[in-house]
Amino acid sequence: MSADLRGTFEPSLTDPMKPMRTNRWPMLLLAVGLLAACGGNETQQDALQVDDGQGDATRTERVRKTKNIFFNIPSPMETAALLKKAGAEYNGKILNDVKNVNRYTSSTAQALNLGIYGADLSYTSVFNQTQESMLYTACAQNLAKRLNVSHAFDQSTVDRMERNRNDRDSLLSIISETYWDVDAYLKDNERENLSGLMIAGGWIEGLYIATQVTLTNDSPELRQRIAEQKLSLGDLVGLMGTYPGDETSIAKVKADLEALNKLFTDVTVESSGESTITQEEGMTVVGGAVAMASLSDAQLVAIRDKAAQVRNTYIN
Amino acid sequence: MRNVRYMLLNVLLTGTFLLLATMSQAQCRSFAKNKCVPELAPFKFNETFNAAQLAAGEEAEVNLTFYSGQQYRVLVCAHPILGEVNWKLVDTNNKIIFESLAPEPKPHFDLKASSTTQMKVIVWVPEKEKTDMVHVGCVAIMVGFKE
Fold this sequence. Notes:
The complex is a heterodimer of chains A (316) and B (147).
Chain A: H1 3-13, H2 25-37, E1 46-49, H3 55-65, E2 68-71, H4 76-85, H5 107-126, H6 130-146, H7 155-163, H8 168-188, H9 192-217, H10 220-240, H11 248-263, E3 276-280, E4 283-287, H12 297-315
Antiparallel strand pairs in A: 3-4
Chain B: H1 2-36, E1 44-45, E2 51-54, E3 59-66, E4 71-78, E5 86-90, E6 96-100, E7 108-113, E8 117-124, E9 133-145
């Protein structure tokens, strides 16, 4: 809830000697109804009356409490694009079998595998595997429907993707937009836990794909990209930490991520020095003097095995 | 009877607040999708939604990972009701990489990462002269990347 809503309305509740009278209720209900009817796509904002009596101290306290901190997890699309740029070759055999889609009956399994199929969809699309992309679209839509998120991923979305199947850029845009819509729909409907599971499932699948590709197509660039996942894993652990830990499914995923995080402990990714800023062909270049992140053979094997073990428990 | 009414009123008001909060967040997403995402072009939206309803004096921050060799656009998009907002991009040592202040706003910053690094975007809404009205508006922090 917005702190401003709390801050604004609290004064009217602090005096129980002045409860609203019954004859005001229809007005209140009407106001609520009108506000609800104004939802839609309009970008209306709130302008709220503040009680002067609150004082600066209260305001400072409210401001202090409402610092918003977000965790930005790289999307499956971004991860797939990084893999391609690192020289990875496409390997459809490592993806989750589309026949598995009907296995997922619990909302936890459905959310995790919506993320997993979403990552597979991004991977097939970035590597321009049109036929496979359509199959993974169908799987993702199937799970979205069963999670009651079909509002954000309906037949019209599938039709748009079908119409643009040969236009890679348009297809990637539609997938990105759909991922956003599904995530937003879950969050807007107080199902943030499922959103977290979907994001975690997608991230795990991205790591699984990257590490499996090294079995046939190992390169320093690919190892670098896998090593760098240490940073996004830290953010993902932070994000999952914002959900209540008493829920079994969330606790299980948190434990899996923590176990993976331990394997990244000795991986050096970032420079501790100050960033440098230079200009290169009109573009600002930001970075520090840091050796390329890399993984030893032992680190790679440990991360690959753990990623496979975690991912396989999610898809089976 | 008065107690029952008071309890019912509390329940109704709590429900109203929850409804308003949900609606506000939905409107914030709608604002970000319709007004902010297009400003990322020609960069591809990274699909992550970071937005909050802020009022004057409030602050939001997002940790971001930038991968070496990649080009990015960092965009801060605020609803006009808030006026211009301040924002900065800082590295892990809090060195300012980029700053946009309300008097001279710059809505986005394009960069190329020469090494993989984490940085933080901090957005804060300037305090205004004392007024009876608190304007609450959506602020979205978005990132686009080039393939």
